[in-house]
Write a structure and sequence with these properties.
This protein is of the alpha+beta class. It has three helices and six strands. The strands form two sheets. A four-stranded mixed beta sheet has the order 3-6-5-4, with helices on one face. It has a two-stranded antiparallel sheet with strand order 1-2. β5 and β6 form a beta hairpin.
Length: 99
């Protein structure tokens, strides 16, 4: 087994190459809080290109099958607006202006 240690924003992480025994699933995902729609669009395009798959509510899988949530950094504020949950459920990529 191959392991790699790395640090992101002061958090120590360890990755393990366990081969085909363990597959990515939605039990773990990474969140990218974005400052604006331009950032959301950038990460969405980068992560869904070359075999990635869109899901719903700002979720997607990259070409390796890892789940991501690409969302606005003011997510909590947007969700307080009338009808926000219903609007979010109808989206794949989050469109800030639609809230």
């Amino acid at each position: 087994m191959l392991t790699v240690e790395f640090e992101i924003l002061g958090m120590r992480l360890i990755g393990i190459n366990a081969g085909p025994i363990f597959k990515f699933n939605e039990a773990i995902s990474l969140m990218i809080p974005c400052k604006d729609q331009t950032e959301i669009d950038y990460y969405w395009e980068a992560l869904t290109s070359d075999g990635g798959q869109e899901s719903v509510c700002g979720w997607l899988k990259d070409k390796y099958g890892l789940s991501w949530q690409v969302c606005p950094e003011n997510w909590a504020e947007l969700n307080k607006r009338p009808g926000a949950f219903k609007k979010m459920m109808g989206m794949k990529k989050i469109i800030i202006a639609d809230f």
